[in-house]
Amino acid sequence: MLRPVRADRRTTSPRSAAPLGRRLPLVAAAVVAAGLTAACGPSSEPAGSAAPATAAQSSQAFPSASQPATASADASPTASASPSASASASASSSPTPSRAQSGSGSTGGGSAKPARTSAAPAAAKVPGPGYDSSADAQKQIDAALRAAKADGRMVLLDFGANWCGNCKAADKVFAQSQTAGILGASYHLVKVDIGGNSSANSALLRKYSPSGGTYTMPVLVVVSPSGTVRTDTHVTGNPSLTAEGINSFLRKWAA
């Protein structure tokens, strides 16, 4: 019978016969593997998660290499928070200049806002028909001239009498809406009674219509705000005492 050959005898001789140079790498690899196993410890994670666990544990095993990274990682949020803080500060402060600029744009130029149109002055009061013989004509004329200097209207002096037919015809035209509108917009009308015995009113007639002679009533005298006579119908003749004639006369001398 053949005797079985022992395995240790077959394997021992080649292993012991292996050169020392071949065994050194194997020994070094075994030492490294043993060192990693001792440093990391046994892993309870499944095989698929062994690599991340080993990487995390290896970072714990070598604190000298991971501490600078940790320090830089700790420092990086501070650095990244600084721009965000400055950005938030600038964002919080930015609305104030924008409001200031919008406010300065609306108020600085003055012209940026639409200019307010001044309201037209109220229409001047137009006296009713007839002539008040008891009125102080000089006082009324002075008041009309002051108002004319304030608003730029002309002063229209109407010298007449209550018994004068032409004066009554003119009063009817003055009462019409269109003529009253022209008078109120462009004139301060003063009616002076020269049909009675008022020497003061007669003196006013001669002051503003100094040519003398026989006066045909009504005598219409247009006076500027400075008191200068612009026209006198005692010299030029009365316009037609109709709406068309009187309105044309009033428009001509209003400017």
The secondary-structure class comes to: alpha+beta
CA-atom Rg in angstroms: 58 Å
Q: What is the averaged pLDDT score?
A: 72
Overall outline: globular
Count every beta strand, where a strand is a DSSP E run of 2 or more residues: 4
Order of helices and strands: HHHHHHEHHEHEEHH
Distance between the termini: 156 Å
Helix content: 55-70%
Detailed description of the structure:
The chain is an alpha+beta fold and 255 residues long. The chain has helices at residues 7-17, 20-40, 50-61, 63-93, 95-107, 137-151, 165-174, 177-186, 199-208, 233-236, 243-254, and strands spanning 154-160, 187-193, 219-223, 229-232. The protein has a 4-stranded mixed β-sheet. It starts with 6 loop residues before the first helix and ends with a helix.
What characteristics describe this protein?
255 residues, 4-stranded mixed beta sheet, alpha+beta
Topology (SSEs and partners):
Blueprint: H1 7-17, H2 20-40, H3 50-61, H4 63-93, H5 95-107, H6 137-151, E1 154-160, H7 165-174, H8 177-186, E2 187-193, H9 199-208, E3 219-223, E4 229-232, H10 233-236, H11 243-254
Parallel strand pairs: 1-2
Antiparallel strand pairs: 1-3, 3-4
In short:
With 255 residues, this protein is of the alpha+beta class. 58% of the residues lie in helices and 9% in strands.
